[in-house]
Amino acid sequence: HLRAVLGNRERFAGRIVVPEVKHGRVTWLTGRSIGAVEPRFQSLPGGKPLLGRGRLASPRMVVLTEGLFDWLVLMQWGLPACATLAMDADDAGREATERLAALLGPRAAPATLPYGAKDVADLAVQPRGREVFLRLLTQARRSINT
After folding, report:
1. What are phi and psi of 82, to 5 degrees?
2. Contact 105, 135 (CB under 8 A)
3. Rounded to the nearest 5°, which phi and psi values hold at 17?
4. Which of 33, 51, 77, 79 would bridge with 37, disulfide CB 3.0–4.6 Å?
5. Distance in angstroms (rounded) separating the CA atoms of residues 72 and 8
6. Structure confidence at residue 27 (pLDDT)
7. Spatial contact of 17 and 29, defined as CB atoms under 8 Å apart
8. CB distance 100 to 108 below 8 Å
9. CB atoms within 10 A of CB 36
């Protein structure tokens, strides 16, 4: 099945590849270049899934993050997370967050990262990054309960 999905294997050369797995089968792949390989991100053609959705049971909260490494960090930290491949702490990321919050309605609680951290992966390399992120989530959850 994976060979049929992959087609041209060169598409992912020079990249760290992350699969979306459903029921033990790889259904989609995306990769981020290491080094100077362009384009920086490469995925299989077609629609982009919400990475990690199939791993969630029915949590009361789900953290939506931009990309692969952010999602992998959150999973390592034991948080229910999905990757939308859309939101960083730049103008485009803020706009995507606003659109997503509008779609999700009053239950959405965007967490703003601290100054100097452009994404969750930046927090992962800080000694207290997980603690900082958990505090941000707590603050965001309080904002929807008030």
Report:
1. -135, 155
2. no
3. -105, 135
4. 33
5. 26
6. 83
7. yes
8. yes
9. 7
